[in-house]
Specification:
The structure is a single chain. Helices cover 45% and strands 16% of the residues. The protein has 255 residues and is α/β, with parallel strands linked by helices. The protein folds into 2 domains: 193 residues, Alpha-Beta Complex (2-enoyl-CoA Hydratase, Chain A, domain 1), CATH 3.90.226; 46 residues, Lyase 2-enoyl-coa Hydratase, Chain  A, domain 2 (Orthogonal Bundle). The strands form 2 sheets. It has a 6-stranded mixed beta sheet, sandwiched between helices. The chain has a 4-stranded mixed beta sheet with strand order 4-6-8-9.
Length: 255
């Protein structure tokens, strides 16, 4: 049986996860989400992984939930325990994640891309929340994350119309960082992840957590002096300063 997720290590310290259901436009089946959740758990435990690239293929990042599975279930897909567990694992993943999006990023596929820390899009990328067309709305966090990313009015337009936006619009709205020819999208995403992975893994994890706090906590709580002091006292911070003074590359240990 072919795995629904392909795992690669294209460069040092970077894990590449490819959704692999090409015949279904990488629809997020229960099996695929289980594999994806397990891969993120493994990446979190692996000290050799400092950044993750998440992608699909040139035709589709992911067209969203597997509606054929949904039709046979008494529960909405976003309420199923296995799906919730996988989604929470990805949402709470502490290391940097870069999404490389070509083709369709619809529904749950768009919501999956919203969990990434940076998004590199191909010129052929299309983003949509089409759930309203089948009598639903985005159930995997899209109603909350999309407005935080692109603003209320634009999110309302996407969610209430169900119509897609192209890569250029996504770039202008701040949904993606950069746009490249489809053949170059993964290459750029891996290069960006490799650049991130060159730095202290401890600092990267803490920086990610601090930025996420800006959307989750009041300003006085998110301006965390305690966490900044903890990072200042770390071995990685001392090594970074020593390496700069000695004009050499730092040797990070992640503590």
């Amino acid at each position: 049986m072919t795995s629904e997720l392909i795992i690669e290590r294209p460069v040092d310290h970077v894990l590449l996860l490819r959704l692999n259901r090409p015949g279904q436009l990488n629809a997020l089946s229960k099996a695929l989400l289980r594999e994806l959740g397990a891969a993120f758990i493994g990446a979190e435990r692996d000290e050799g992984v400092r950044a993750v690239v998440l992608t699909g293929n040139e035709r589709a990042f992911s067209a969203g939930a597997d509606l054929k599975e949904m039709e046979t279930s008494d529960l909405p897909s976003f309420a199923e325990a296995g799906r919730l567990s996988a989604w929470k694992t990805i949402e709470r993943f502490p290391k940097p994640v870069v999404a490389a999006v070509n083709g369709y990023a619809y529904g749950g596929g768009l919501e999956l891309a919203l969990l990434a820390d940076s998004v590199v899009a191909g010129e052929n990328a299309r983003f949509a929340t089409p759930e309203i067309k089948v009598g639903m709305f985005p159930g995997d966090g899209g109603t909350q994350r999309l407005p935080r990313c692109i603003g209320k009015s634009r999110a309302m337009q996407m969610i209430l119309s169900g119509e897609p936006i192209d890569a250029g619009t996504a770039l202008a709205w701040g949904l993606v960082n950069e746009v490249f020819p489809p053949a170059d999208t993964i290459v750029r995403a891996v290069a960006l992840a490799a650049l991130v992975a060159r730095h202290s893994p401890l600092a990267a994890r803490m920086a990610k957590e601090e930025v996420k706090m800006a959307f989750e906590k009041p300003l006085d709580e998110s301006l965390s002096l305690e966490r900044k002091m903890l990072l200042f006292q770390s071995e990685d911070r001392r090594e970074g300063v020593r390496a700069f003074v000695e004009k050499r590359s730092p040797r990070w240990i992640g503590r």
